């Protein structure tokens, strides 16, 4: 899909299900590969990122079969991966590159992990440093960037304090720790998404947690599991936001993941006046899920700072896109990490929202988008970043005149059927 025209819509209403959670899908696939026995994962994410994880596992000798959203993975046990002589291609997926690096650090062979242009610009020192402390040897382009050449080794557990709040770094260390000798503890500055911890426990590992510290004994064997993945809240949020800004909308999304480390964005929207209702709560494999209903409403806006910013890092683009539709605007601070995502998301948001006529101020670690602004349709450039493309689409739904989103196919990185679902739910 090269370009996508987005026209203003009347309402975004109905019922739908979003694809399986991307973060959870990566983790279930990796742990299933390391387990003993054959796991089955249902509602596996169709995201291009998760396809990369499966493709890398295949390259490492893991047998797996995918039928629609169901993936059967034949685990090879902790020492059963085979050397891949070609580069492992993580594509656009930071989670694939970083989590896989944790696993590869403990292997008795050399691997090379590479990615696309965007991923090659993203910092990897953050995983290299702890994995080298555990005993692996890693060389990176300019010391920080992909491709990484990872020379695996018998690892030792470490006590590690994360310098940045990052679930990917935490997970890389925990996966390496699982395969290491001795105990590994990780302390994070802010509780980030805990899917790795929950998944490890589900696959049978003993793992202890107290507040921001996680402790894991190494050399534990995992057992295969039958699993199902809840819908992805970080995808659902784009449809919920679309419904919020179009008066008269009422939308229900079924079976969405509601893990408390992911729901800060719902708390923020609720505090701004969004009528959000949760029903049908269930817990599967330690992961909370439920149905989310929302209706359009006037939003007050506000300032987002501090630890909760890290807990809704993937939702900040869509919150910024809601800014012009709020009463007082939206200000996001303490979000340095947004600069090193799939694109420089602060720069991309500032550029595109301004093209639509929004009043935006840029900060080194955030942005401020004024409220009560009538947007106009424009030519938008998401810089190849899926979440920027979807945030642009949400902003465009209430603009005057049509917008054109360049390279809109990039939404496939996390939410391949985003535009189809949006079309099904919208009335012009
Ligand atoms: C993810 C962690 C976050 C998030 C990314 C997915 C994960 O990245 O932005 O989309 O699955 O662990 P960081 O760990 O870099 O914050």
SSE layout and pairing:
Layout: E1 3-6, E2 11-12, E3 14-17, H1 22-34, E4 38-42, H2 48-59, E5 63-67, E6 70-74, E7 88-89, H3 94-104, E8 110-114, H4 125-133, E9 137-141, E10 145-151, E11 159-161, H5 167-179, E12 183-187, H6 195-202, E13 207-210, E14 213-217, E15 226-228, H7 233-245, E16 250-257, H8 264-271, E17 276-284, E18 287-295, E19 302-304, H9 307-311, H10 316-322, E20 330-332, H11 345-355, E21 360-363, E22 366-369, E23 379-380, H12 386-397, E24 403-406, H13 418-425, E25 426-427
Parallel strand pairs: 3-16, 4-15, 7-8, 11-12, 19-20, 23-24
Antiparallel strand pairs: 1-24, 2-25, 4-6, 5-6, 8-10, 9-10, 12-14, 13-14, 16-18, 17-18, 20-22, 21-22
Helix pairs in contact: 1-2, 1-3, 1-6, 2-3, 3-5, 4-5, 7-12, 10-12, 11-12
Notes on the structure:
The chain is of the alpha/beta class and about 425 residues long. It folds into two domains: about 220 residues, Enolpyruvate transferase domain (UDP-n-acetylglucosamine1-carboxyvinyl-transferase, Chain), CATH 3.65.10; about 210 residues, UDP-n-acetylglucosamine1-carboxyvinyl-transferase, Chain (Alpha-beta prism), CATH 3.65.10. The strands form seven sheets. A four-stranded mixed beta sheet has the order 3-16-18-17. Strand 21 and strand 22 form a beta hairpin. It starts with a strand and ends with a strand. The protein binds shikimate-3-phosphate.
């Amino acid at each position: 899909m090269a370009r996508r025209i987005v026209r203003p819509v009347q309402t975004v209403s109905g019922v739908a299900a979003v694809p399986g959670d991307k973060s959870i899908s990566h983790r279930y696939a990796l742990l299933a590969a390391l387990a003993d026995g054959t796991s089955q994962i249902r509602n596996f994410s169709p995201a291009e990122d998760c396809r990369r994880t499966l493709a890398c596992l295949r390259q490492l000798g893991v047998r797996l079969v995918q039928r629609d959203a169901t993936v059967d993975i034949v685990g090879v046990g902790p020492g059963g991966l085979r050397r891949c002589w070609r580069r492992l291609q993580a594509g656009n997926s930071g989670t694939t590159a970083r989590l896989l690096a944790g696993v590869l650090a403990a292997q008795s062979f050399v691997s090379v992990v590479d990615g696309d242009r965007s991923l090659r610009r993203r910092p990897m020192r953050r995983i290299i440093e702890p994995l080298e402390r555990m005993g692996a040897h890693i060389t990176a382009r300019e010391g920080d960037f992909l491709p990484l050449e990872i020379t695996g080794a018998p690892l030792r557990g470490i006590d590690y304090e994360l310098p940045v709040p990052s679930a990917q770094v935490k997970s890389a260390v925990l996966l390496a720790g699982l395969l290491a000798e001795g105990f590994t503890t990780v302390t994070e500055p802010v509780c980030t998404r805990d899917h790795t911890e929950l998944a490890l426990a589900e696959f049978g590992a003993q793992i202890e947690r107290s507040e921001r510290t996680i402790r894991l004994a190494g050399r534990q064997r995992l057992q295969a599991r039958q699993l199902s993945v809840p819908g992805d809240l970080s995808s659902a949020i784009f449809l919920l936001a679309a419904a919020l800004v179009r008066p008269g909308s009422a939308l229900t999304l079924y079976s969405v993941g509601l893990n408390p480390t992911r729901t800060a964005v719902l708390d923020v929207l609720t505090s701004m006046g969004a009528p959000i209702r949760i029903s049908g709560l269930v817990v599967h494999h330690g992961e909370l899920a439920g149905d989310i209903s929302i209706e359009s409403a006037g939003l007050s806006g506000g300032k987002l700072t501090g630890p909760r910013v890290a807990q809704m890092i993937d939702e900040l683009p869509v919150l910024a896109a809601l800014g012009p539709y709020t009463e007082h605007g939206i200000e996001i601070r303490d979000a340095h990490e947004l600069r090193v995502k799939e694109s420089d998301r602060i720069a991309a948001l500032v550029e595109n929202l301004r093209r639509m006529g929004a009043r935006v101020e840029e900060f080194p670690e955030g942005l401020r988008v004024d409220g009560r602004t009538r947007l106009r349709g424009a030519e938008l450039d998401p810089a190849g970043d899926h979440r920027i493309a979807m945030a642009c689409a949400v902003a465009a739904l209430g603009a005057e005149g049509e917008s054109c989103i360049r390279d809109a196919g990039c939404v496939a990185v996390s939410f391949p059927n985003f535009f189809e679902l949006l079309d099904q739910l919208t009335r012009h």
